[in-house]
Amino acid sequence: MHNIPVLTIDGPAGSGKGTIVEHVAKELGWHILDSGALYRIVAVAAEKKNIAFDDDDRLAALAEKLDAVFLPCKGGGVEVHLEGDDVSEAIRTEDCGCAASKVAANKGVRKALLERQRNYLLSPGLVADGRDMGTVVFPNAFAKIFLTASAEERAKRRFKQLNEKGLNVTLAALILDIQERDLRDMNRAEAPLKAADDAITIDTSDLSIDEVITKVLAVVREKK
Ligand code: C5P
């Protein structure tokens, strides 16, 4: 199992991880772990069951037996199901991202999801997307990337994405959301958002998606 290569891609909300991970994984023919989706699903499940976002014991129990599946769609992309219900859209809202970041600050929740995340490590390789992939979940990953971009640039990207989906948001509100989420993710006691010591940081503020993909693939080739 330890011979299966892992590429970790960590970074703050809106740094472009999702898109980059998708393209890079396709190029390499590797699996994807979208760890943020797991925290988002726990948040949706907690809301459904009326569990407070700081009730670590109940949240941890919930995360431990989380009945969540990712179903690959024929035309690409994945459908996310929670207890049989399609929550693919519900987990992608900005509110759910904020709720996930509150849920993710709980120690028991992180512990409960650790093994589940490691189980995604399947041949021929894994691209792991998150906040603590290189620091906690896969510390022995052969290549680690940390993607950053200014809060304003990240908010602009989110704005575009959410607008395209027809969701009603303002840029000002998104900048505030992103700053609040960054602060919570960077300052929490458990697995705070930070680059692993051996990660390569790429600032994507002034780069196109293609340029970032090329840089990431160059890192992978160099490490191989
Ligand atoms: O990446 P995404 O925006 O889907 O993540 C939602 C939230 O889940 C993040 O703001 C973060 O608080 C939390 N998260 C985490 N650790 C991960 C992935 C996500 O704490 N590995």
Q: So, CATH architecture?
A: 3-Layer(aba) Sandwich
- Work out the helicity level: 40-55%
Number of domains: 1
N→C terminal distance: 17 Å
Tell how many strands the DSSP assignment holds: 8
The number of helices is 9
| Mean pLDDT across every amino acid position | 93
| Rg over CA atoms | 17 Å
Shape: globular
CATH topology: Rossmann fold
Structural class: alpha/beta
For CATH, the homologous superfamily is named as P-loop containing nucleotide triphosphate hydrolases
- Ligand list: cytidine-5'-monophosphate
The ordered string of helix (H) and strand (E) elements is EHEHHEEEHHEHEHHEH
Give the neighbour order of strands across the main sheet.
2-6-1-7-8
The profile of the biggest β sheet is: 5 strands, parallel
Broad CATH class: Alpha Beta
Low-confidence stretches: none
Beta-strand fraction estimate: 15-25%
Please provide a written account of the structure.
The chain has 224 residues and is an alpha/beta fold. The chain has one domain (6-223): 3-Layer(aba) Sandwich (Rossmann fold). 48% of the residues lie in helices and 16% in strands. The chain has helices spanning 17-28, 35-48, 56-64, 94-103, 107-118, 133-137, 151-164, 171-187, 209-223; strands spanning 6-10, 31-34, 68-72, 78-82, 85-86, 126-130, 143-148, 200-203. Strands 2-6-1-7-8 form a five-stranded parallel beta sheet. It has a three-stranded antiparallel beta sheet with strand order 3-4-5, with helices on one face. The protein starts with 5 loop residues before the first strand and ends with a helix. Residues 13, 35-36, 39-40, 97, 100-101, 104, 130-132, 181, 185 line the site of cytidine-5'-monophosphate (C5P).
